[in-house]
Design brief:
CATH class of one domain: Mainly Beta
Order of helices and strands: EEEEHEEEEEEEEEEEEH
Low-confidence stretches: none
Distance between the termini: 34 Å
Mean pLDDT: 85
Number of helices: 2
CATH superfamily of one domain: Trypsin-like serine proteases
CATH architecture of one domain: Beta Barrel
Strand content: over 45%
Shape: globular
Helix content: under 10%
Largest sheet: 7 strands, antiparallel
Strand order of the largest sheet: 2-1-5-6-7-4-3
Amino acid sequence: MLFDGVDTGERKYLGSCFSLLEPMVFVTAAHCIEGVPLERLRVNHHGGPPPDLFTAVQRIEWVLEADLAVFQTDAPGARWAAPFSRVKYAADFGEEVCAFGYPVDLISPISVKVTPRFFRGTVLRPFLFERDGRRYSAFELSFACPPGLSGGPLFLAEDPATVIGVVTENFETIAVRDEVVEEKRPGEVVRHEARHVITFGVAANIFSACDAIEKILGRRLPDPEP
């Protein structure tokens, strides 16, 4: 989890993140941390000096056009960091994928409570996502990505150690009419439309962050698959 602020009373939740290849290398969605001073960024992964669970961010490599950011912490022995060990740069239509993160619990009585959640679904399509000046290769997902899940990993269901993307967006909701129900009242008939709402999550292809990851790691990643 990413936070803005050092002191408990003022610490603000920013979004999800995950470690990749090494315990001190993390990836997130750029919009989660844009505008936050580097010295205020903290990661909660049991990496700070005891008894602090929060680790300072030391360096950030930005990929703003793809809404991605790669950053380095100062805790190579962090107890909660379990890095994804492999990356893949493509996915098939209908391939089963998962996402994990800490979205805001919209039904909790506690204001802005973040809750760990696991999502599983399929890749509906790979496509070129464009919004607010950003343009990048992405995956459209069969499940919604609620607020706070941004920055979380998208990984293969059959190979959970392999990450393919980073959750960045949620498509606008689409209202679909299911049925029309007639209610008879004295002297009138009232028609009600029953609707349900569909939302689709979006994840940026991890390939867009390859250069930034290599700069942080100081070594090359595997070449993209053909």
